Amino acid sequence: MFLAEEAAQAASKIGTFDWFMLAFTILIAIGLVRLLNARPKKNIFAIGFTTVSLALFLLIDFIMITKVWMA
Description:
Elements: H1 2-11, H2 16-36, H3 44-69
Helix pairs in contact: 2-3
């Protein structure tokens, strides 16, 4: 019984919010690629904002995976 309780606890480490964070990180990365591929005129402010956002989300994802999922 003890092993079943421990397995259930380990499975519950990954929450719905974690999957949304990963999805938003992928969406931000796709947006950055599209901004960088804009041909006629590039929006420098949008590229900078997206780069900072992507860096922050990647840091949060790294902390989430290393501290919560693998703990």
